[in-house]
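Is NAP placement plausible here? Inputs below.
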Amino acid sequence: MRTVRLHNGSRVPALGQGTWRIGSDRAARAAEIAALRLGLDLGMTLIDTAEMYGDGAAEELVGEAIAGRREGVFLVSKVLPSNAGKAAVQRACRASLKRLNVERIDLYLLHWRGSIALGETIDGFEALRRDGLIGDWGVSNFDVSDMQDLVGLARPNGCLTNQVLYNLEYRGIEFDLLRYGVEQGIPIMAYSPVGQGGALLDHPALVRLAAKHECTPACVALAWTLRHDTIISIPKSANVAHVRENAAALSLTLDAEDLAAIDQAFPPPRGKTPLALL
Ligand code: NAP
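Reply from A.M.:
I modeled the complex. Tokens:
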């Protein structure tokens, strides 16, 4: 498995697994757990979840999926901005730990910037870190100006990642945020990397490249996000066939001709666009 190095020296898989919209449907539970476990077997051992997903149901399902194999998993969860005050974040984190049935979240993210002062959230994260309830912390949906505010307030190397929307249809971060992350040593965690399984996967340019490489459009879309060695990509799938396709993206290298065809179909940004989010 290719890895990405974090500021704290640890290496995490470049390809992980998302969990939005899982855990709420009892009938789908067994398939969702099987898909996550297959992903772990295939090396996609970073799992991203959030207290928001299914009001905690996704965290509970993750807890069940990783039972007995916690040591081999890098666990990421996210706190809602409304719970990001110094005392509230303690309660939210403990509730997430309980649902996940673990003693520590490896990386705890602020889901998006809300009205609570960033300094207060950072203090709350640092207290959780000192108490060993989280390994480290990061943020999500932060644009460059938010990151500048954050870096000005945090201890050096405090923030370990910025999780943002990044796929072929949303390339805005290539103009500035991606470079900012590289300069600061803060990897981007790309969410919705296969465009939520929507129209992106039917795009003729992707279909052509998939045929050329004897893989699937999702595999091409993922390999494209993984072409940067500072990007961690977290596709969600509750379908074992899709999980296998997604894992195959690690062995696909897109050549210059492929990348040019992609740029023609999905042009890179020519100027600043505000960070897109879902
Ligand atoms: P995504 O991973 O781009 O797409 C997931 C959808 O694509 C699912 O419906 C899935 O269906 C389908 N899919 C996955 N692999 C496929 C394949 N090989 N072929 C065809 N369809 C495939 O979108 P996402 O779930 O929005 O993003 C990924 C993760 O990022 C989330 O689950 C969540 O953990 C995180 N996220 C974070 C934020 C944030 O604000 N921080 C926002 C959005 C997402 P099947 O299950 O049937 O495979």
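Short version: Residues 18-20, 48, 111, 140-141, 163, 191-197, 201, 216, 218, 234-239, 242, 245-246, 278 surround NAP (CB under 6 Å).
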